[in-house]
């Protein structure tokens, strides 16, 4: 039964590959039939669990409530989406985001729940580092706006360079990953080679210092919570 549960969870999650918009699109009737089959299996598994569990215990378990809510939401969304398709009205399958709930909340997924809880417990403790990183990013973006915004520079495509604050924030956020380096600094570098120091300082502070600090905090807190929960009750 555990193998069957995992198989249908995997099948349900894999539908995203075949549903519109999809990598390998299949007809709506095929994907909807598979999804209904998966939901029926999940409902049957939940019903079986209810038969061998005390009613008071079953209804106090939030995992069971989450599964039932996810099934109802998925069926409701599937029905609405199907009706709208009949009238050629485009819509979005918003219930896809609830599919991981089945992976986390079934009784067979105890280790996954422990890992998920460790991640959840880690998030509040890394908030301060994340806020400090965002403050650094916003300050560097403000400096970039003041440095380059009034110089009427243009990108290689002829677009305005660093004149919109939100676009600057996004470009520098991408620069943290070095995905747009060195292209993002070339208009400023062509104007004056000294401007390269700004981008070098940004990469040192945000990519090498903050990202390393962020990774260290995430790893240490996750490991701490995982050790605490490893021998705890489910």
From TrEMBL:
Family matches, as Pfam families: Ion_trans
**Location (main, coarse):** membrane
Keyword annotations for this protein? Membrane, Signal, Transmembrane, Transmembrane helix
Tell me the compartments it is located in. Answer: Membrane
User: Gene Ontology terms, cellular component aspect?
Assistant: membrane
UniProt cross-references to PANTHER family, sorted A to Z: TWO PORE CHANNEL 3 (PTHR46726), TWO-PORE CALCIUM CHANNEL 3 (PTHR46726:SF1)
Membrane-spanning segments: 26-44, 65-84, 126-145, 165-182, 194-219
Q: Where is the signal peptide?
A: 1-16
Stretches assigned to the Ion transport domain: 5-224
Q: What is this protein called?
A: TPC2 protein
- Which InterPro entries did the record assign? Ion_trans_dom
Q: Name one GO molecular function term.
A: monoatomic ion channel activity
The answer to keyword Signal applying to this record is yes
Specify whether Transmembrane is a keyword of the entry: yes
User: What is the recorded membrane topology of this protein?
Assistant: Multi-pass membrane protein
